[in-house]
Amino acid sequence: MRNRSKAEAYPSVAEAIGRNYDRLRALCLQHHPGHEDIFHDTVVFVIHDKEALGCGDDEALIHHFLYRYRMIRFQAIQDTTRAKKVSYGEYMKFLANSEKMEQEREKGIGVPD
Prior knowledge:
It is a single chain. The protein is mainly α. The longest helix has 27 residues, at 58-84. It contains six helices and no strands. It has a domain at 11-85.
């Protein structure tokens, strides 16, 4: 998981998120109920986001929050996909090591008494 916090948090943004927390949560999680962790990562990210300071009213902040939520959700999906991929070379090394261990086991090498 990525580190979403930066050097400085902005209390005014945190207060605005607090005022609109229930609405933001409902908007983000209505179609993706299992993504609470992504929602909370977004809360942390937006509280530290300089661009969120430029949002003049709550509606602009909600729009910005939803944009960041989609961005972080996409990144999380990409990170998960990348973590699941095993390169061909790594797979071939795994097979070679498995075969070698099986041969040693058949010969009795490395087997504790």
